[in-house]
Specification:
mainly alpha; two-stranded antiparallel ribbon; rod-shaped
Length: 141
Amino acid sequence: MASVNYNEDIGQAFDELALAENRFEEIGFSDGLKDGRVQGHKEGCKLGKEKGMQIGSELGFYLGFVTTFRDLLKSSDETRKQRAHTALQSLKEMIEKFPVTEPTNQQLFEDLEQIRSKFKQICSLLNIQSQYGGENKVMSF
């Protein structure tokens, strides 16, 4: 009769159990990593679209402002209005040069701040209170 070594069988069973735990941990990690990348990509796309729409809307507001006030100031001869007309032209050029096709450009947010500052300067020159407020645009004279 052959002798059965139960200690070896039990040891081998525990080793297989420990290895199975490691395998399942590795499988879980790789599945979680893959799912996290997919979810992160989706969230990144959504956030990028939202920010892009916000910036585009703001730039559109400023460009509409420029177009309107350039037309209103065409016939004015006042020096102050001439300065405002020059500033409006400068703002229009800044908006046209804005890097809309380079979303990773680090200069993008600095350029946006310069556009906002120029807009505030123009409002001061025209002696009006106006601000971009997202969905709630406020303009008063």
